[in-house]
């Protein structure tokens, strides 16, 4: 699996990271760019995120929402473009049946399946 770098501090990042261990930036995988990025809340827009700026911006940054499985279950690190009507990311919307998440052991099992599915999504997307 490819490792990434935090665009804020240069720290090595791994596919499942949600926070940079060095600079503490919140991280997300951007499926439309096929990369991990440090993200920050959009000022004045509740629930919207953008890639952290490195210097001056030439045009307004693309805005994203966190995948619903992140906000509700802390089980995904992908984002959804703000103009996408789905609350789920491209990987999570493929899930047809959720286990009973009131049982703690099911949450961990489901999380591991979702990690594997996101890795498969990344690999297939990179292959074209």
What's this model, at a glance?
This protein is α+β, with helices and mostly antiparallel strands and 128 residues long. 23% of the residues lie in helices and 20% in strands. It starts with a strand and ends with a helix.
Describe the structure.
- By secondary structure, the chain is of the alpha+beta class.
- The chain has one domain (4-127).
- It contains 2 helices and 7 strands.
- The protein has a 3-stranded antiparallel sheet with strand order 3-4-5, with no helix packed on it. It has a two-stranded antiparallel sheet with strand order 1-2.
- Strand 1 and strand 2 (12-13) form a beta hairpin.
- The protein is globular.
- The protein starts with a strand and ends with a helix.
Per-chain topology:
Elements (H helix, E strand, L loop, with lengths): L3 E2 L6 E2 L12 E5 L4 E7 L7 E3 L12 E3 L1 H6 L5 E3 L22 H24 L1
Antiparallel strand pairs: 1-2, 3-4, 4-5, 6-7
Strand content: 15-25%
Number of helices: 2
Task: Tell me, rounded to a whole number, the average pLDDT.
Answer: 93
Helix content: 10-25%
Across the major sheet, the strand order is 3-4-5
Major pleated sheet: 3 strands, antiparallel
Compute the gyration radius: what is it? 15 Å
Poorly predicted spans? none
Distance between the ends:
16 Å
């Amino acid at each position: 699996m490819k490792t990434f770098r935090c665009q804020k501090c240069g720290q090595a990042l791994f596919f499942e990271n949600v926070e940079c261990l060095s600079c503490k930036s919140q991280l997300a995988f951007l499926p439309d760019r096929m990369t991990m990025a440090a993200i920050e809340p959009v000022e004045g827009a509740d629930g919207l995120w953008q890639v952290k700026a490195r210097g001056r911006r030439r045009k307004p940054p693309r805005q994203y929402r966190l995948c619903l499985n992140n906000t509700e279950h802390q089980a995904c690190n992908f984002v959804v473009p703000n103009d996408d009507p789905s609350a789920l990311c491209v990987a999570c919307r493929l899930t047809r049946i959720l286990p009973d998440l009131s049982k703690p052991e099911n949450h961990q099992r489901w999380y591991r399946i979702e990690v594997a599915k996101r890795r498969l999504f990344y690999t297939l997307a990179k292959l074209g």
